Amino acid sequence: MEARIDKWLWAVRVFKTRTIAVEACKKGRVMINGSRVKASHMIKSGDVIQVKKPPVTYSFKVLQAIEKRIGAKWISEMMENVTAPDQYELLEMSKIGGFIDRARGMGRPTKKDRRDMDDFVGPEPTDDFDFDE
């Protein structure tokens, strides 16, 4: 059995909506064997799919090609997560990174963030020059 990749990614809950899955395909974030695929690409069992969700690239092996959304407890029968452990280390490092790479839409930095940035940058140089003399 074959299924469209956008429907499969939505059905196994890699993406919350099918629209988001289609957008990821259009932006080149979904690949099969290193080549970008369109949302209409047909997949079959045994295919390995890479999905870029910065900063991590997840890899999934298709066990069953489905197009209908299923319950979360059945997902392990439809796909196998074959993501390399170093990708999860990248995810942890990005969480630890904190305020330096603020995600868009996170709002203004808090007072604590500002103090941390000031400590990181160091004290401002003082202006000891008097040009009026």
Verbal overview:
With 133 residues, the protein is of the alpha+beta class. The protein has two domains: 1-83, RNA-binding S4 domain (Structural Genomics Hypothetical 15.5 Kd Protein In mrcA-pckA Intergenic Region, Chain A); 85-122, no CATH class. It is built from five helices and seven strands. It has helices spanning 5-11, 18-26, 75-78, 85-97, 111-121, and strands at residues 2-4, 30-32, 35-36, 42-44, 48-53, 56-62, 79-81. The strands form two sheets. Strands 3-2-5-6-7 form a five-stranded antiparallel sheet. A two-stranded antiparallel sheet has the order 1-4. β2 (30-32) and β3 (35-36) form a beta hairpin. α1 (5-11) packs across α2 (18-26). The mean pLDDT is 84.
Provide the spatial order of strands within the biggest beta sheet. Answer: 3-2-5-6-7
Query: So, the CATH homologous superfamily of the largest domain?
Result: RNA-binding S4 domain
Q: How much of the residues is beta strand, in percent?
A: 15-25%
Number of H- or I-type helical stretches: 5
Structural domains: how many: 2
What structural category do the secondary elements indicate? Answer: alpha+beta
Poorly predicted runs: none
Distance between the termini: 86 Å
Largest sheet: 5 strands, antiparallel
